């Protein structure tokens, strides 16, 4: 099913783009001047010859003097009668045909040469232009793509560059074309998907597109049926609530709670200060918000991927995939006691071209205690957004020069961001919360930028937002003396910096022995190196802390490591210490994460020694 979904999404892009092309070209066809784009502005009907019947040669005589003839026809060219002999006849006139021409008065064979062609072209042209040249051509032709016979092209020096095409065998005026006609032919090519310029809508491209559209419809139908059977299509009227009985993991009753039916269980539980782990914000991709429901509750496609068969049989489900209408009881598996807080923005500063440091104060004065590496889930309200940040410093405008300005509206959602607080704050508790958030920009107007990052990074000082937590899924192992190796990039700096400060500035006071801490951090340019001065200061102050920055697009004067952070780790991992004595902590872009995890697997690193934060 996962493959069908991916196929459906890619096919939707292909079909959607071609539908836009059809709509655009179809609109043009409705608005265009049909007479102007026909190519016939200066076309006229040649004068037909007045035939003297008494002078005509008997057709039988002509046939007796010619090779095998399929048909004979009397025609008029330049006000003179001729016999057109067809020796090989195609189904249509533009198919491969073999003609010869005979004077109907003298029975003499006639060769259509340049002199005759110029006269033929002039007989069908009523413009003021003069003939520039006449050339004999062989197929294929841009202006007449279906034509398979040799033709003469007579070009006129008029303002629309008229060309007259004449069949080299029969003298037939095939077509007039000009720049207006050539322009509209581009739209016909796009509309009929005639990308091979075959001059026909019966082409391989449109046949393939028909098959793609068929698969798109079938995969969409299958997906719809699956959602229907899983109970994920529901019609709701109003904001109703339903009472659910909650139990802990030991099946001890917690109590009864009213949950609204127009939201999923993940978001509904947070209103009762019950927070389930979720780094994807309810998108059904992280698989962390596990609960136990009645085993009869239908399984969604996300749960088929993220949960085992045994778990599904035992009633394990993802809270983000179900709502209160589907069950009467709910068993919590792994619950963090968390609550919602109202945060006020007190500081907002660009610390790199795409990353902001944000500081919030918890209204009410309550202090939060949490482990380094914890995160909060922000609740983004429906709002209008923009693709280029407001209050962008002049020094960073250069980096956003290729981003198209876009205004858009987005629905409510939730996003998780790591806390960047460090040193003693996190143990003593604090009401000032620090974050480093990367603004996910939009490459073009067809794609929205990151809704959550754009919203909170465009908040003004004094504005408020709700957030829940803290969630402590990513943290240093307690009482461990193993070497710590931290690998990060981009806004993955936040939880890793917090871990470093926790270990150096707080826990080190309690340890008799210090352990090595190695921080590998990747960025594109030196402007993207977050907190580099502070990290260099820590490396000078604490002899057990080592900072390894690496740039993928460095300036000429950069003397440090170049490339990607996972490559720098590869070249240094065996030089530091025995790999069995190392704990790895990862946070950064998906490509960096997957490459680093694959590297650690090749080194046979135990999975229990790898911790990673999947959101950035």
UniProtKB/TrEMBL annotation:
It holds the Pfam family Fer2. Residues 242-339 form the 2Fe-2S ferredoxin-type domain. The chain crosses the membrane at residues 206-229. Residues 338-477 form the FAD-binding FR-type domain. Keywords: FAD, Flavoprotein, Membrane, Transmembrane, Transmembrane helix, Ubiquinone. This is NQR complex subunit F. It comes from Colwellia asteriadis. The lineage of its organism: Bacteria, Pseudomonadati, Pseudomonadota, Gammaproteobacteria, Alteromonadales.
